[in-house]
Design brief:
The structure holds three protein chains of three kinds. Chain A is built from ten helices and no strands. Chain A is mainly alpha-helical.
Chain lengths: 269, 534, 316
């Protein structure tokens, strides 16, 4: 009975996320209207012709959200890949080997954690210039420290565990120990962090758009649209609500998957 | 024990429900805002605003004042907008943009235009209570002329002053080395006390309002000056509140925190409940254009620039991004500057996609090209304009990408560094002279001088005829003749498609009902002395 | 004690590192403080003059060491945008943010502890799915979206406070506190959701340990065991989490301050970055870093005090 319920989160999460991803993929090939096509039907409320209404340039919000959530999904996913990927490597190295390298990397890590992410993103955008891919790199770097710290703890905790010491005694290489013996045991820490990270990445992208250093038109992203919709909350509430709603749904779906996976994991243990 | 658990459970339940409830009501209220605001409005006009009783107002502004409040050093338009109420010159602008006597009560100009005799008005007082004397006037003018920190356009303009002499204790004789038709505009420069060194933090002037205090990134306070020589202000106290987010200003109006906000867009005005506010419309008095870097391919080709002029539909931009408000222009002078404005240039390039394509083909770009439009991200109207332009250019095969940059980056890289292809921005006249609008496109402003100092020709406009016309204009001492030459220069800019001129933007001001007397100037100022509660 | 000293030394080193990174950042970001002050029409001569006045013409490292020397003698420098000592400018802003963050932290602690406990006890119950779903939803709502909703609903419609009219704290303390409360709620909600989830899984994990099972099999009730052992053992991860929370809500306050129009540190930081007012940014960055690292350090030290075993595990 318990098992069934746990999978319920996973199923619901996969269903929500799957539908959104399907929707996004369709958006790559077909949108009801061209996403940048302007028309004189400005700020129209939701109707059959425009499911989410239109924005201040008379563009179809549904089509733009289809395209924008794709951009956002890609940005968030790649941000997490960079952040968690590099973070895990740093965490593994520092957590397992320790010593002076650990000390140096962790101080640098602390410094980066404490550094305002907006300023860090600005610096990176200043070097690389604006644009979608540079936003990803900037956000990825911003996300490294928190993963590094977390993974370091996860790896350090296993260092003196019996099976690791015995593996070491049996002559397994550090590489093998890290990859085969330790990494799988960090999954329960990493998974929920990935979900939360995804949420944060979407929001961070929104904040960057807010400051005008996010994606550049004609690219659209959810963050860009949300910051735009904020100013029209009273005259066009459907704009903020549909964009905010899709962001929340996307994050919610992914969180449910995270929750489901975590519970499955707990059950196995 | 059990009771406690129950209580906790209940509490948790209530919390969860109320949180959800808050979210849901949030959505509900948002969706039915029409009804909600009508309700609020039905009550609102009945009660007099609290501040009407104490005779004060709160004005919302989008940026903090300059680091220095010294009127001779201040550079930001936003600072001048506020300090217009604090400072006056020998003369000042009226609402037509003409100069009228202020600290001077009278001025006599000699036949040859070389000697100006000013009569100092009796009993003009500074905000610290001291009476203005000729020493203060001479000090103020001399400072603007010589101090290296003063706006260079002001100091070069004043360079023609050869001497300043006292004649008795209320007459000032100003002798010029050569006539200058624009001198009066320059003499709106603030008169400040000669023996006071705290202008940058606690400024003192002669205007109808005196400066009280400021709090960084929060507010600025002004107070009525009781000893003002002219018609005193009506309001006792004026507070400016700073909110760098336009949405914050709109919300402040709606919540009752603010009484007046200028420079709103039509979209923002649409957010306000009409029952509580009057919307007044003036002009921003600037030249908004898609400025093209004339030195960078493909815009070094005049045909391409002309093609862009035909491809961009100005009325379309106004309709799409500004709800139809705004005034299309055809050259680098805005309509409110009537003396120099040439209306015939507005329709020099009619929107014509076919012509644009033909010109592009002729220039060697039959299939269009890729270009970037750099826009300062903090100026939403310019970003919107650029977005509409990009969409319009798609029709002629040009693929334009926007590059949104921070304002300081724009200033350093785009404007000063001239490292751009095209940009949307609005240029103002400061001081309000034709020269300040048109000199910037001359060769003198394009190339570096002996000190490696480049001028303001950031679009690198390069036209020998234009340079020659400008030489004539500055040497011309006949007003009518000079106006004609300046108009020739305007035409030159249009014909050679220096840039794609778009509009002078509409300036929407939201004023709380009950507050009257808003006066528009052809300048970027807000005169609070005429405002009053009914 | 030795451990505490090491942590404090690490804190110190990190702050120096952060201040250096911030300084280096200014030299990379495009934009020029002199131009920011003098405007578009400034001449090279005027710019050079001002740069000299501000000491911007000196080499990068010299500038940095001058700043560092000033910092250690208690002088944070003079703001470029306001010509006032940085300290006098930022202290009022810090007060506002500190109060808001503390209210927010209070809300998080007061609500998440009982909610988390309940969630753990009722785990697997009939309403578990609902609780989890609400929890997840609260985490999924973007903070600034929440802020917009709250300011409209509670500010404009219900008029509990006046958005855009933050009263000065020294003039109207209750008004200011009321205003800050609503902003603090927006910061708190996602963190509460996270805290509840974290508490729940920690407690459940602990409940499944052998000693708990033994205790229960010996005839102790679940509630007794929970009270006597589990809670005590869950305390350390909770404190670590609260330490993180303390650090992160300061970051979260930046966006919320923008939407609510609160003149706090976050908004001032963003404005100062866009004005290129480096002395202010530098000071705020160092203070922020201090806060973030201090929260972590304090949480660690308290954790050690409670559970000395940790000292063996951690080597940093």
């Amino acid at each position: 009975m318990m098992k069934k319920k746990w999978n319920g989160y996973l199923i619901a999460g996969c269903l929500i996320t799957g539908i959104i991803i399907l929707w996004i993929v369709i958006g790559r090939f077909y949108t009801p209207y061209p996403p940048t096509k302007m028309s004189s039907a400005k700020l129209q409320g939701p109707s059959l012709a425009h499911l989410f209404g239109t924005d201040k340039f008379g563009r179809d919000i549904f089509s733009r959200v289809m395209q924008g959530s794709g951009t956002t999904l890609v940005i968030a996913a790649l941000t997490i890949v960079i952040g968690a990927g590099v973070g895990t490597v740093v965490g593994a190295v520092t957590g397992y080997f320790g010593g002076i390298l650990d000390e140096i990397l962790m101080r640098l890590n602390d410094a980066l954690t404490a550094f305002p992410s907006i300023l860090l993103a600005l610096v990176i955008i200043s070097i690389l210039g604006p644009g979608k891919y540079n936003v990803i790199i900037a956000l990825g770097i911003v996300f490294i420290p928190s993963y590094a710290r977390m993974m370091r703890t996860a790896f350090a905790a296993q260092r003196e565990v019996n099976y690791i010491t015995s593996a070491r005694l049996m002559g397994a290489s550090s590489m093998r120990i890290l990859l085969v013996h330790m990494l799988p045991n960090t999954v329960h820490v990493l998974l929920p962090a990935l979900t939360i990270g995804f949420n944060n990445a979407v929001l961070a992208e929104a904040s960057m758009s807010f400051l005008g250093i996010g994606v550049t038109p004609p690219d659209v992203s959810m963050g860009y649209m949300l910051s735009e919709a904020q100013g029209m909350f009273r005259s066009a509430p459907w704009y903020a609500l549909s964009v905010g709603g899709v962001i929340a749904l996307l994050v919610f779906g992914i969180s449910l998957i995270g929750e489901g996976l975590q519970r499955m994991n707990e059950e196995v243990n | 024990m059990k009771g406690e658990v129950m209580k906790k459970k209940l509490l948790a339940g209530i919390l969860a429900v109320s949180m959800m409830g808050a979210l849901l009501t949030g959505c509900g209220k948002g969706a039915t805002q029409g009804e909600g605001s009508t309700q609020a409005a039905a009550e609102a006009p009945a009660e007099t605003p609290e501040r009407a009783k104490t005779n004060e107002i709160v004005i919302g502004i989008a940026q903090d004042l300059d680091q220095s409040l010294d009127p001779h050093y201040a550079v930001a338009a936003g600072t001048k907008e506020v300090m217009f109420n604090v400072f006056e010159g020998l003369v000042k602008y009226d609402s037509n943009g003409d100069t009228v006597p202020a600290v001077a009560s009278d001025v006599q100009i000699s036949e040859d235009g070389l000697v100006y005799t000013f009569t100092l008005r009796d009993g003009v007082k500074f905000h610290n209570g001291e009476t203005v004397d000729l020493d203060d006037v001479i000090y103020s003018i001399q400072r603007c002329k010589d101090d290296p920190k003063v706006n260079p356009q002001t100091s070069t303009g004043l360079a023609c002053i050869a001497s300043l002499e006292k004649d008795g204790d209320n007459k000032l004789v100003m002798t010029l080395s050569e006539p200058n038709t624009e001198l009066m505009s320059l003499l709106t420069l603030a008169i400040i006390p000669s023996d006071y060194d705290k202008q940058d933090t606690a400024p003192i002037g002669t205007g109808p309002y005196k400066y009280v205090s400021r709090t960084a990134q929060e507010s600025v306070e002004l107070e009525k000056f009781a000893d003002y020589w002219g018609t005193p202000g009506n309001l006792d106290k004026v507070t400016y509140k700073i909110n760098e987010k336009a949405e914050g200003l709109v919300m402040g109006l709606e919540s009752g925190a603010l009484d007046l906000v200028s420079h709103l867009s039509s979209t923002q005005v649409g957010e306000l409940s009409k029952e509580n506010f009057n919307i007044e419309q003036g002009t921003m008095n600037l030249v908004q254009a898609l400025y093209l870097n004339n030195e960078v391919a493909p815009f070094d080709n005049e045909l391409v620039r002309q093609a862009l002029c035909y491809a961009v539909d100005r009325q379309g931009i106004l309709d799409m991004a500004f709800d139809g408000y705004g005034f299309p222009i055809g050259s680098n002078v805005f309509p409110a500057f009537t003396k120099y404005y040439d209306e015939s240039l507005v329709n020099y390039y009619e929107h014509d996609v076919k012509k644009a394509r033909d010109l592009l083909a002729q220039a060697g770009y039959p299939d269009g090209f890729d270009m970037t439009i750099t826009v300062p991200s903090n100026y939403q109207p310019h970003c919107d304009t650029a977005e509409v332009i990009a969409e319009q250019l798609r029709e002629v095969g040009i693929n334009a990408t926007l590059q949104r940059v921070e304002w300081e980056t724009w200033k350093a890289d785009t404007y000063a560094g001239r490292n751009f292809q095209s940009t949307v921005i609005g240029l103002t006249a400061d001081p309000l002279t034709a020269r300040s609008l048109l000199e910037r496109f001359t060769t003198g402003q394009r190339v570096a001088d002996a000190e490696g100092n480049r001028g303001n020709n950031f679009i690198n406009y390069n036209n020998a005829d234009y340079d020659a016309l400008f030489e004539q204009a500055v040497k011309c001492y006949d007003d009518a003749e000079q106006v004609k030459i300046y108009k020739e220069m305007e035409k030159n800019l249009t014909e050679h498609a220096a840039s794609v001129y778009i509009q002078d933007m509409a300036d929407m001001v939201a004023v709380r009902k009950g507050l009257t007397g808003l006066t528009f100037y052809p300048l970027y100022v807000l005169d609070v002395s005429t405002l009053k509660w009914e | 004690m030795k451990y505490a000293l090491r942590r404090i030394l690490a804190l110190f080193i990190t702050m120096i590192l952060v201040s250096f990174l911030a300084f280096a950042a200014f030299h990379i970001i495009s934009g020029d403080p002199a131009r920011a002050i003098l405007g578009m029409n400034a001449t090279e001569k005027q710019l050079a003059l001002l740069r000299q006045e501000l000491g911007l013409d000196k080499p990068f490292l010299v500038q940095y060491f001058n700043w560092l020397l000033g910092f250690f003698s208690g002088n944070l420098g003079i703001s470029y945008s306001y010509r006032q000592p940085v300290a006098s400018l930022i202290i009022p802003k810090l007060q506002v943010t500190l109060v808001m963050v503390l209210i927010s932290f209070g809300i998080i602690v007061v609500l998440s502890l009982p909610l988390g406990l309940r969630a753990a006890q009722k785990s697997g119950g009939r309403l578990d799915w609902l609780r989890t779903t609400v929890d997840q939803l609260c985490m999924a709502v973007p903070a600034f979206f929440l802020s917009i909703l709250v300011s409209y609903v509670f500010g404009i419609v219900l008029k509990f406070f006046t958005p855009g009219d933050f009263p000065k704290m020294e003039r109207d303390l209750t008004g200011a506190l009321r205003y800050l409360f609503f902003a603090a709620v927006c910061i708190a909600i996602p963190r509460i959701a996270m805290a509840v989830r974290m508490l729940k899984s920690t407690i459940i994990e602990e409940m499944e340990k052998d000693y708990v099972r033994t205790a229960i099999s010996r005839g102790n009730t679940r509630a007794e065991v929970l009270k006597k052992h589990v809670l005590k053992n869950s305390l350390v991860p909770t404190i670590t989490f609260l330490g993180q929370t303390m650090a992160e809500i300061v970051g979260g306050s930046i966006v919320v301050e923008q939407v609510f129009g609160i003149p706090g540190m976050g908004r001032f930081l963003v404005a100062s970055i866009s004005n290129r007012d480096y002395p202010v940014v530098e000071a705020l960055v160092v203070i922020l870093a201090f806060w973030v690292i201090l929260s972590g350090t304090v949480a660690d030290l308290v954790g050690q005090k409670i559970d000395p075993r940790l000292r063996l595990g951690d080597r940093s």
